[in-house]
Amino acid sequence: MENSILDLINNHRSIRNFKHQSLSDEEVKTLVTAAKKASTSTFSQQYSIISVTDQEKLKEIDKITGNTHWMLSSGHYFVMVADQYRNLKIAERAGADPYILKTADKLLASVFDAGIATENLVLAAESMGMGATIMGSILNDSNKMIGLLDLPKLTFPLLGIAVGYPETIPEIKPRMPETLQHFTNGYQLDDQIGNWLPIYDDQMAKYYASRSTNSRQENFSNHIVSELSRNRKLRADLLENIVSQGFDVDGISK
Amino acid sequence: MENSILDLINNHRSIRNFKHQSLSDEEVKTLVTAAKKASTSTFSQQYSIISVTDQEKLKEIDKITGNTHWMLSSGHYFVMVADQYRNLKIAERAGADPYILKTADKLLASVFDAGIATENLVLAAESMGMGATIMGSILNDSNKMIGLLDLPKLTFPLLGIAVGYPETIPEIKPRMPETLQHFTNGYQLDDQIGNWLPIYDDQMAKYYASRSTNSRQENFSNHIVSELSRNRKLRADLLENIVSQGFDVDGISK
After folding, report:
1. How far is B86 from chain A, CA to nearest CA, in Å?
2. So what's the pLDDT on residue B250?
3. Is the predicted pLDDT of residue B175 greater than 70, yes or no?
4. Percent of chain A at pLDDT above 70?
5. Are B151 and B145 in contact (CB under 8 A)?
6. A-B C-beta contacts closer than 8 Å
């Protein structure tokens, strides 16, 4: 099956090399509008979007996310924020008990909302000839992000999105075979992994070896194993920071 | 700005009334492929998709999600699953320490992955003339969902997606004004809410009163307040069930 939307979705690649061209206010508004049209859990619209245009703040975010610098040349930078604070204000105005907003369930709903809206924003940008990279690496120092963006209680920074017009367009990264990721009526990986993982590892080895930039010897299994060896202190404060922001996720015994 | 993708995104509504028409295998494959093309955190592809076609299991999910029955007439039902189990198997095959996979950070990465892929799947369906509703209500009994889908450790059910050809198409639900949800360089709700929330409440009151089905007296503030009064026991086992699945999110003091 083919149509222009499937084409767009199926040709996605993350863009990390941008033309030096800032997005216009109208372009930013179009992207934010698209994000806001996404489904939202219990229609609670429990996330916010922060545009970061201040160069000093962008440099701080670049430090937090690994000093890669490419994000500084993007055309616009968004941060998606889990947000139960707005609903807390609504509760306060109505004199209602806000307890539910602090639960793990509502935090998760905020993460769903933000993730779903993020993809709308990315696809909207791609439909306008731009590209984007979603950056979970802002969580390398969530506490600093909270300070940098003046985030109140019951909010939490989740994802950065660097958007802009691409200078170069990389190859599409092959995803794993469907048989390893899509099951029917129950989880059935164990029957599949022995046969299919080696096939995918070969495919990824060819991709990594032949790609035009940053080519290297690697396959999917190696990639996952190297991710496992990262510094355990990185993001070890994540739950502590979530709790500091007022969410009750610090103990199941409560 | 206009293009066919922005049109699609901006005309989204959740569909809860489906024609009795099952999706073909090719349609399902097209949707799964679109989901898999989405960005994935650290390229770890840490989610899985389970198609539920067994009528008995669908009836169980209908019970869990509130006995609304409309999901039973959808053309296909997907469940998005946070999945670090596959990467655990890769770690085991390589003799690597899987500790990192159990962290809150990796659980969150799984939720990002699943949320982003969910929106690709929904938009792909809409581009093919179908509609969908994303159902967080599967978390009403996450433990039962785990049993029903044979989910192994380091996996967790997140969202159901009912997809099908729409029998009727509801009105678009107005989202809150941008000024309440999009900020620049820092969080700035407090200056905006007093002026803009009443305007949005009026807009939503008109929407709820005039919509073609399920019209009622309600505005956005009322809606949030009624959400706050729900039974506290509902989903109170969420964190406990996440921990039972092997994720280390049961205490910040560890």
Report:
1. 7
2. 61
3. yes
4. 98
5. yes
6. 352
Read off the pLDDT of each residue in A76-104 and give the average, rounded to a whole number: 97
Assess whether pLDDT exceeds 90 at residue A49. Answer: yes
Q: Which of A232, A142, A163, A136 is nearest to B43 (CA)?
A: A136
User: Do B3 and B127 meet the contact criterion of CB atoms below 8 Å apart?
Assistant: no
Nearest by CB to B221, which of A94, A220, A225?
Answer: A94
> Can you tell me the distance from the alpha carbon of B177 to that of A93, in angstroms, rounded to the nearest whole number?
18
A231: amino acid identity, one letter: N
What is the mean pLDDT of the segment spanning B241-254?
Answer: 77
φ/ψ (deg, to 5) at B31: -70, -40
Token pair 């092997």 is found at B246
Contact A207, A215 (CB under 8 A): no
Q: What does the pLDDT average to over A153-175?
A: 97
CA-CA distances (angstroms) from residue A138 to A143, A227, B144, B157, B212? 10, 17, 34, 25, 43
pLDDT the model gives residue A250: 61
Q: What is the pLDDT of residue A182?
A: 98
Pairing of strands B47-52, A155-164: unpaired
> From the CA atom positions of chain A, what is the Rg in Å?
20
Separation of alpha carbons A36 and B176, rounded Å: 8
Residue A248: closest C-alpha in chain B: B239
In a 10 Å sphere around its CB, with 0-12 CB exposed, 13-18 middle and 19+ buried, how is residue A34 labelled? buried
For residue B119, give the nearest of A116, A151, A242 by CB distance: A116
- Tell me the pLDDT band of A54, cut-offs 50, 70 and 90: very high
Instruction: Tell me the domains of chain B and their CATH numbers.
Output: 4-171 (3.40.109.10)
Please report how many Cα atoms fall inside a 13 Å half-sphere around the Cα of residue A75, on the Cβ side: 23
- Quick check: pTM over 0.95? yes
Q: How far apart are CA B55 and CA B61, in angstroms?
A: 10
Residues 144..203 of B with a Cβ closer than 8 Å to A: which?
148-152, 155, 158-159, 173, 175-176, 178, 180-190, 193, 197
Mean of all residue pLDDT scores within chain B: 95
pLDDT above 90 covers a percentage of chain A that reads 94
Question: A169-195 pLDDT, tens per residue?
Answer: 999 999 999 999 999 999 999 989 999
Q: Where are the alpha helices (DSSP H) in B78-189?
A: 85-94, 104-127, 142-148
Mean pLDDT of A19-37: 98
Q: Which residue has the tokens 């194993």?
A: A225
Q: How far apart are CA A8 and CA A132, in angstroms?
A: 13
The one-letter amino acid at B37: K
Residue with tokens 């949030």: B224
Alpha helices for A65-219 (secondary structure H): 85-94, 104-127, 142-148, 190-210
Q: Half-sphere exposure of A176 toward its Cβ, with a 13 Å CA cutoff?
A: 26
Query: Residue A251's pLDDT band (boundaries 50, 70, 90)?
Result: low
Q: What angle do CA A201, B37, A179 make, to 5 degrees?
A: 50
Q: Are B85 and B153 in contact (CB under 8 A)?
A: yes
